[in-house]
Design a protein that fits this description.
The protein has 6 helices and 6 strands. By secondary structure, the protein is of the alpha+beta class. Strand 1 and strand 2 form a beta hairpin.
């Protein structure tokens, strides 16, 4: 199925596995590695689908989100998960509270992991301002 058509259909996914299975195999590998990176850095985080994409919460508060697109992986760790990594994220296209990692370049899994670690500390210290 065409990814643009799929994403415009507003499908209510029941699980992250189901969400990831909607992508071509090569993108599934990347999404699964993003997922594994998040789970490795925050094993206690709960996993769900929120806003139509994989979402992770810790202590009942949002931690990070990610999403697959035709040409990039979207990663959402707002607000501080981005603002505290400005220099490293500066080479990527960004929106308010989002960053796009292009699929035609290596995905920075190490950076994703460090952002998740930062958000975990912030979340556990009660400084979570992500909505």
């Amino acid at each position: 199925m065409n990814l643009n058509i799929l994403k415009s259909m507003k499908i209510d996914f029941l699980s992250v596995d189901e969400y990831i299975r909607t992508f071509p195999d090569d993108i599934q590998l990347i999404l699964n590695k993003v997922r594994a990176t998040i789970k490795e850095k925050s094993p206690e985080a709960s996993e769900s689908i929120s806003y139509g994409m994989p979402a992770y919460k810790l202590n009942g508060s949002p931690l990070v989100y990610f999403a697959g697109f035709k040409n990039h992986i979207g990663f959402y760790a707002t607000p501080t998960g981005h603002s505290n990594f400005i220099e490293e994220l500066s080479k990527y296209k960004q929106g308010k509270g989002s960053v796009q990692f292009p699929l035609n370049k290596p995905i920075p899994f190490d950076l994703i992991g460090r952002i998740v670690e930062y958000r975990v500390v912030e979340n556990l210290n009660g400084k979570n301002k992500l909505h």
